[in-house]
Amino acid sequence: MNLSNENVIHIKNGDIEYLQFKKLLEFKNIKHAYSLKPLDFRTHDNNDAMNSYKILLEEMNIDPETLIKPIQKHTDNIVTINEKDATDVQDTKLLKLEQTDGIITNKKDITLATTNADCVLMLFYDPSNDVIANIHAGWRGTFKKIAKRTVQKMVNEFKCNPSNIMVFISPSIRACHFEVDEDVKKECDEIFAYTKRLDEIIKIGDKKERQTKVFYRQYFD
Predict the structure, then answer these.
(1) Residue 168: C-alpha distances to residues 43, 59, 221 (Å)
(2) Which of 154, 141, 136 is nearest to 34 (CA)?
(3) Is the pLDDT of residue 89 over 50?
(4) Is 3 a member of any domain?
(5) Do 15 and 61 share a domain, yes or no?
(6) How far, in Å, CA of 137 to CA of 121, rounded?
(7) Cα–Cα nearest to 107, from 95, 93, 91
(8) 25 and 115 part of one domain
(9) Where are the alpha helices (DSSP H) in 60-172?
(10) Which long-range contacts does 208-215 make (Cβ < 8 Å, 24+ apart)?
(11) Do 31 and 113 share a domain, yes or no?
């Protein structure tokens, strides 16, 4: 199946498959990709995961030693990366990146990586200040407004103009498949009531075993 459309292109090279955003490809000073199977990035301690990073980065002519990957825990913590840790070939286990779901940099030769299953990954780019950010946002991160906090951090630390920041949302679970219970719906109602758009992100489903299921668009922020 070819997943290319008006926004993304689907690259296939042997066993390697990944998506790229057409708009981001207009900027030659950055590289990006959203990897598809069979590569596996799921665990920090998995040798197969580290090998997958190496395969994908070498496919894109990126030095694997430039990789930085936070230890994601559904937080709203965002860390600015100013340099690589010289003691770690691949910065995927650094304590400073524990409990971290967003990373930002304006430095060259640093690769920011995040992983997802159902959750949303977002790529931010300000071409005027050459600042990039990579964040992971499930419903918990969305409720904590990690995307908003990322923009605020780019503005405060790098003097970015919000109107110049582009955001690219990677593939994630669809609302029609993402069931949540009443407690999550209630929290969503409380946090986002001010938008007056709750009917766009919450859909009441059928009752299952006497309990009504709710479908939620987790990328909303």
Answers:
(1) 24, 22, 14
(2) 136
(3) no
(4) no
(5) yes
(6) 6
(7) 91
(8) yes
(9) 139-143, 146-158
(10) 211/181, 211/182, 212/182, 213/179, 213/180, 213/181, 214/179, 214/180, 214/181, 214/182, 214/184, 214/185, 215/175, 215/176, 215/177, 215/178, 215/179, 215/180
(11) yes
Q: How far is CA 126 from the centre of its chain?
A: 16
Tokens standing for 165?
Answer: 């920041």
pLDDT surpasses 60 at 52: yes
156 contacts 126 by C-beta, under 8 angstroms: no
Q: What is the mean pLDDT of residues 121-125?
A: 98
C-alpha torsion angle, residues 116, 122, 127, 132 (rounded to 10): -50
Tokens standing for residue 182: 């009443």
Number of domains in the chain: 2
Write down the residue that tokens 């919450």 correspond to. 202
Arithmetic mean of pLDDT over the chain: 87
pLDDT tens-digit map of 131-171: 999 999 999 999 999 999 999 999 999 999 999 999 999 99
φ/ψ of residue 121, rounded to 5: -110, 140
Q: Which residue from 128, 174, 122 is spatially nearest to 149, judged by alpha carbons? A: 122
Looking at residue 61, which CATH number applies to its domain? 3.60.140.10
Q: Note down the domain range covering 134.
A: 8-169
- Residues with Cβ within 8 Å of 75's Cβ and at least 6 positions away in sequence, in order, are 99, 100, 101, 140, 141, 144, 146
pLDDT score recorded for residue 93: 54
